[in-house]
């Protein structure tokens, strides 16, 4: 069975096995799909006949091949996999029910990386939507209240009008619109199914098309053609429908939904004042928070959250973590699937859903436990293979010795013994234990296969880790601080309060400075003073005369996107070539881009405007690293990166000789890059002798009310403060 979804640039083709038995009342919070294959291809290749679809499938990029998709009710799954493996494609296929086997009646809520107002199709609806406040917008999106209220208005106006035929026409119009929506779903179902069930679905579609045609005929009837009996019956039906719709917008129910929406928006950082403002007046970050609130407010069987922590501060992240965990105590908790680069955040998940090598594998537990178990299994398999290789070499040696001795002495027993041992190696050598740890038996473990040999011990190949190396900074020639702020203050205008108040900060070579604080506390303003994008209202900013600065802005990705749209042919390679202006050869530029995850044709052929968020971050980092800076100032650098790249960057920053000033809400990243607390499996042996001779300062600051204070216990201290605040928000 096949399903397909098209866009102007790409098509998702899904095939899967389905049971032949029709389930009348499926559990919408569970999925169990066998033989799932997903292919992404260009939109124009998938159109047309089945032959065209088969050709498109062969030419497209295969995301999954004969995989098993299994979600259990109420579990929380972290979908993990490297960038480019197809995580977002899989989530979209689930959310849009493109996968055969997902019931049409399942309620699936998804957080997508788009503005709420971008989803409005026609200009009229978009204009009306733009005038709504954030609170109204979120409630309307989550509950379809706008649609219900429009239907109530149509019926109420017709009942109140003097025209006796008004209620009948209003009733017929609303029914016809509902029938058309149902027709769309049946048409989709008929296209998804094949075989006997497909034939039944197509028959149902044809029958329903007749019902829609009859409804259209009634809609076109004039007043003279409506009988007195029909007028009486349908007028009563219109009154009944109106009463039913009014129950859905009953003040007590709406008040309950509004109270829940306010609680969610407050947890995500919205004040009462901000909730009442039009959403169009806000930045992209607030749009994403509103979209997240919409997904959380919906009554869903399956909830899909793709990078929900983007644009949230640590208070919002901890609140969301607690909120999602608390859902398990509700009557019908949704099944949760989330993608996040924040390793501490995905600790809320009960299971891992691992997308690798076009397969889905499952692990009950958290990511550190999974990584430890994988490392242990690989170690066990290597030891087992080494032992068997030694045993095999020893047996082969005795075989040769016995054959030689048997032939020399014409000893047939030794010759037979040697041949018997050789047969064992040829036919029965390999795994000595089965998957459960018991003794391997050929007729039990490989039943149904005409095999004469066990499989060899298969040690999985080492997956090439993401490794990042920062260029060593050039010699400063004479000592001194790289950057310093002295009693620096800043306000946007004479009438506004101070955003930064009397701040002192010194950054020396090798220092690791972390800055934590809630959104709006002035972190980005402080960074702009430090990199001299803004001048302080009072106080001074001093930089070393030979300082080379590398500044990553939290808006760097948006800036590159705008640059890519302005120059559609611009690639990462041409951009870097333009930046370096002859300082590096093309080979050196390609080497730098390749090391950061933009190899070969991705660097030279894919336009910047078509790069993903993570690829744009890598491109921006390459623009910083080629200059060999002494100091890196990084403002929310992890937002679009996968966790393997975040891991690599954290290790690279920890070992680097230069200074690092870091602003991030990612606790795990800050602990490693600033505090130097790397995991056991992360190699911290590369600290050079120079770094050992020069003591490295590691300081974590909290910025609140424009003033900086040192966090003596670092990230842990700030996390405890945020957990207390999150508990109050959840209780309120």
From TrEMBL:
Residues 401-423 are annotated as: Disordered. Gene3D superfamilies: P-loop containing nucleotide triphosphate hydrolases. CDD domains: ABCF_EF-3. One of its GO terms (molecular function) is ATP hydrolysis activity. Keywords: ATP-binding, Nucleotide-binding, Repeat. InterPro entries: AAA+_ATPase, ABC_tran_Xtn, ABC_transporter-like_ATP-bd, ABCF, P-loop_NTPase. Residues 31-383, 483-707 form the ABC transporter domain. This is ABC transporter F family member 3. It comes from Tolypocladium ophioglossoides (strain CBS 100239).
């Amino acid at each position: 069975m096949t399903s397909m979804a098209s866009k102007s640039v790409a098509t998702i083709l899904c095939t899967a096995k389905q049971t032949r038995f029709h389930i009348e009342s499926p559990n919408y919070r569970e999925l169990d799909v066998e033989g799932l294959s997903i292919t992404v291809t260009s939109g124009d290749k998938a159109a047309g006949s089945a032959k065209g679809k088969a050709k498109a499938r062969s030419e497209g990029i295969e995301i999954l091949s004969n995989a098993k998709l299994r979600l259990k009710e109420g579990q929380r799954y972290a979908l993990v996999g490297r960038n480019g493996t197809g995580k977002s494609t899989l989530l979209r296929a689930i959310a849009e029910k493109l996968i055969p086997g997902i019931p049409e009646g399942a309620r699936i809520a998804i957080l997508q990386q788009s503005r709420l107002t971008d989803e409005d199709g026609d200009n009229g609806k978009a204009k009306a939507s733009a005038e709504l406040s954030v609170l109204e917008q979120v409630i309307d999106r989550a509950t379809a209240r706008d649609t219900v209220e429009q239907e109530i208005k149509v019926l109420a106006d017709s009942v109140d009008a003097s025209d006796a035929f008004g209620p009948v026409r209003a009733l017929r119009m609303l029914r016809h619109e509902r029938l058309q929506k149902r027709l769309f779903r049946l048409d989709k179902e008929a296209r998804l199914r094949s075989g006997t069930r497909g034939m039944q679905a197509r028959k149902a579609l044809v029958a329903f098309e007749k019902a829609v045609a009859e409804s259209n005929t009634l809609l076109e009837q004039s007043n003279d053609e409506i009988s007195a009996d029909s007028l009486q019956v349908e007028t009563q039906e219109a009154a009944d429908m109106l009463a039913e719709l009014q129950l859905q917008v009953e003040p007590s129910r709406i008040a309950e939904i509004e109270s829940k929406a306010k609680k969610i928006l407050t947890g995500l950082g919205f004040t009462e004042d901000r909730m009442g403002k039009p959403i169009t007046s806000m930045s992209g970050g607030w749009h994403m928070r509103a979209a997240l609130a919409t997904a959380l407010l919906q009554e869903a069987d399956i909830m899909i959250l793709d990078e929900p922590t983007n644009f949230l501060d640590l208070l919002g992240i901890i609140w969301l973590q607690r909120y999602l965990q608390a859902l398990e105590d509700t009557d019908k908790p949704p099944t949760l699937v989330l993608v996040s680069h924040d390793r501490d955040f995905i600790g809320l998940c009960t299971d891992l859903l691992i997308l690798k090598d076009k397969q889905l594998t499952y692990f009950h537990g958290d990511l550190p436990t999974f990584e430890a178990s994988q490392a242990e299994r690989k170690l066990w398999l290597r030891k087992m293979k080494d032992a068997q290789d030694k045993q095999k070499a020893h047996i082969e040696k005795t075989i040769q010795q016995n054959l030689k001795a048997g032939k020399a002495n014409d000893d047939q027993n030794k010759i037979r013994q040697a041949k018997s041992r050789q047969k064992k190696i040829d036919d029965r050598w390999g795994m000595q234990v089965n998957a459960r740890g018991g003794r391997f038996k050929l007729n039990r473990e490989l039943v149904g296969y005409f095999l004469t040999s066990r499989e060899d011990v298969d040690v999985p190949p080492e997956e090439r880790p993401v490794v990042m190396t920062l260029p060593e900074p050039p010699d400063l020639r004479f000592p001194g601080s790289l950057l310093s702020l002295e009693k620096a203050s800043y306000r946007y205008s004479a009438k506004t309060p101070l955003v930064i108040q009397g701040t002192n900060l010194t950054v020396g070579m090798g220092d690791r400075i972390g800055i934590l604080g809630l959104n709006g506390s002035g972190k980005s303003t402080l960074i702009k003073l430090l990199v001299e994008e803004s001048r302080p209202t009072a106080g001074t900013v001093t930089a070393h005369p030979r300082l080379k600065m590398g500044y990553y802005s939290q808006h760097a990705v948006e800036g590159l996107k705008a640059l890519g749209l302005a120059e559609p042919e611009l690639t990462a390679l041409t951009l870097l070539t333009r930046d370096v202006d002859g300082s590096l050869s093309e080979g050196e530029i390609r080497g730098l881009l390749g090391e950061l995850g933009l190899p070969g044709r991705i660097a030279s052929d894919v336009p910047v405007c078509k790069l993903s968020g993570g690829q744009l971050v890598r491109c921006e980092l390459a623009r910083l690293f080629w200059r060999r800076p002494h100091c890196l100032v990084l403002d929310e650098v992890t937002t679009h990166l996968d966790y393997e790249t975040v891991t690599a960057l954290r290790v690279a920053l920890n070992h680097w000789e230069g200074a690092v000033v870091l602003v991030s809400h990612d606790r795990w990243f800050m602990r490693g890059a600033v505090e130097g607390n790397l995991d056991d499996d992360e190699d911290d042996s590369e600290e050079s002798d120079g770094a050992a001779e020069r003591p490295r300062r590691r300081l974590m600051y909290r910025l609140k009310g424009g003033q900086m204070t040192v966090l003596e216990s670092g990230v842990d201290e700030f996390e405890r403060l945020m957990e207390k605040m999150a508990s109050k928000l959840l209780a309120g």
